[in-house]
Amino acid sequence: xxxxxxxxxxxxxxxxxxxxxxxxxxxxxxxxxxxxxxxxxxxxxxxxxxxxxxxxxxxxxxxxxxxxxxxxxxxxxxxxxxxxxxxxxxxxxxxxxxxxxxxxxxxxxxxxxxxxxxxxxxxxxxxxx
Length: 129
Known about the structure:
The protein is built from three helices and four strands. The protein is mostly helical. The chain has one domain. A two-stranded antiparallel ribbon has the order 1-2. A two-stranded parallel ribbon has the order 3-4.
């Protein structure tokens, strides 16, 4: 069974497998219904994301990548600073690290989501002339 592992979620992709007790005509009808459902989800994503996000371009990807890299750098730098102290980290220090890591992970997921939106055709990609 194909699946995708992200930092926070494992997503399983099932594909249509006909029930043994369905005749071929019923299987075709069921496939047609599932195709309509998939298209409805595609159309909804394209419409909503187009209105909210607009489009994707290299500049937007670059800004998101820079923000993600900065968040990663802040998280790791804070970790190194804590590790170099002779005393054990205080609970608030660990809470701060958690916040910094969450920011990095959220930006990473947003970058991947934007990429998937382009890949799936939900958003138009505008290449620079």
